[in-house]
Amino acid sequence: MCDALAQPLRAKRVRRTSCVMAKSAEDLWAQRIQVSPVIAGGQPHIAGHCITVQNVAIWRERLGLSAEEIAAAFGLRLVDVNAALSYYLAHRSEIEQAIQADETLVNELRSRTPSKLR
Question: pTM to 2 decimals?
Fold first, then answer.
């Protein structure tokens, strides 16, 4: 193969590998995780979806679903689920506080409102 043909092939390979290189967590979050006051009550969520980081954390940590299972069940890309899990691990205390606050609210509402099914 002559150098004139090999040069573009080498350049393409370099471009492809540079796109695959690992980015920092903040870069990944900036692309995949959003916080908007009009979506999901202002909670961090997967970009383009109403699925919150808190939901993903509960499915993974409490229900034991794998990242692949979460992605398949909710029509997400695996990179989105991994970004949500990474965000959760970096912001674990505040997300756990939000989960606890939600559980407290649910328990309070259950105690005030008797079930019509019982």
Answer: 0.72
CATH numbers and ranges of domains, the chain: 23-112 (1.10.10.10)
For residues 17 and 9, the answer to whether their CB atoms sit within 8 Å is no
Q: Which bin fits 15, alpha (ψ -120 to 50), beta or left (φ > 0)?
A: alpha
Q: For residue 115, give both structure tokens.
A: 């079930």
Return the pLDDT at 23. 63
pLDDT on residue 65: 97
Q: What is the 3-state secondary structure (H, E, C) of the chain?
A: CCHHHHHHHHHHHHHHHHHHCCCCHHHHHHHHEECECCEHHHCCEECCCCCEHHHHHHHHHHCCCCHHHHHHHHCCCHHHHHHHHHHHHHCHHHHHHHHHHHHHHHHHHHHHCCCCCC
Q: What is the mean pLDDT of each run of 10 residues along the chain (118 residues)?
A: 38 38 68 90 93 97 96 96 95 95 94 83
